[in-house]
Amino acid sequence: MSVDRFVPEDIREMYAVHEWRNGLAVLSAACPEEWADIQAALREFRLYASEIIKRGGNRSKIAIRIDSLLARRGWRKKKFDTKVVVDELERQSPTHEIDMFKGGVAFETEWNNKDPFYDRDLNNFRLLFDLRVIQVGVVVTRCDELQALAVELGRDKQSYGASTTHLSKLLPRLEGGGGGGCPVVIFGIQRALFVDDRDAPIDQVDIDPALIASEED
């Protein structure tokens, strides 16, 4: 199984890993530096109770934490200026801003948004792959089991409900070809990463906001 072959056991114990169109093989062979960065960030990341509990803001502290781990390794947010030209007639073909980008890898974090954001991400991967801008897309999201954890911590069920981004909402879209021919790798955050820091909340992420995506996604 390619997941066992390419993903170290310690990462598999913390994340549910899925792929589309040999995403792991492409990521490890074509983008080894970026794959090493991602593995390091996944190992360093922890899911803190204080950041689940916190409300408000344009972007969750959890997503910012994940982005910051890559930003320290040279990744940056990226918006591509794409267009289509037919018989000298030019039409804009806009794509949304990628959370983090390096080499040929587009990286998106979907912690707790409305599930149609998955369609946007996969369609963006498809377009950028077809334009030969990226070689693989990566999504980090939460496993279904974390919805119960959020409620345990006092978040209401609707905030982390069935219409929000979690793994069982993403996989049917992936397997239905939402990303087209683009290789995709999915990492689902599991409860094994949870740290209860309510008695001594973790320090806020210290990162230049210019380095990470500023819009909610």
Can you give keywords for this protein?
Restriction Endonuclease, alpha/beta, globular, disordered C terminus
Topology, please?
Layout: H1 2-6, H2 9-12, E1 15-20, H3 23-30, H4 32-44, E2 47-48, H5 49-53, H6 61-71, E3 76-78, E4 83-86, E5 89-92, E6 98-102, E7 105-110, H7 116-130, E8 136-142, H8 145-152, H9 167-175, E9 184-189, E10 194-195
Parallel strand pairs: 2-10, 7-8, 8-9
Antiparallel strand pairs: 1-9, 3-6, 4-5, 6-7
Helix pairs in contact: 3-4
Describe the structure in your own words:
This protein has 217 residues and is α/β, with parallel strands linked by helices. It has a single domain, classed as 3-Layer(aba) Sandwich (Restriction Endonuclease). 36% of the residues lie in helices and 21% in strands. The strands form three sheets. A six-stranded mixed sheet has the order 1-9-8-7-6-3, sandwiched between helices. Strands 2-10 form a two-stranded parallel sheet. The longest helix has 15 residues, at 116-130. The chain starts with a helix and ends in a 22-residue tail after the last strand.
CATH class assignment: Alpha Beta
Q: Name the shape in a single word.
A: globular
Mean pLDDT value: 90
How would you write the strand order of the largest sheet?
Answer: 1-9-8-7-6-3
CA distance, first residue to last residue: 32 Å
Percent helix among the residues?
25-40%
Q: Could you name the ranges where pLDDT drops below 50 across 5 or more consecutive residues? A: 213-217
In sequence order, what are the helices and strands, one letter per element? Answer: HHEHHEHHEEEEEHEHHEE
**Helix count from the secondary structure assignment:** 9
Largest sheet geometry? 6 strands, mixed
CATH-level-2 architecture: 3-Layer(aba) Sandwich
CATH T-level topology? Restriction Endonuclease
Structural class: alpha/beta
Number of distinct beta strands: 10
Instruction: Estimate the strand proportion.
Output: 15-25%
Evaluate the radius of gyration: 17 Å
State the domain count: 1
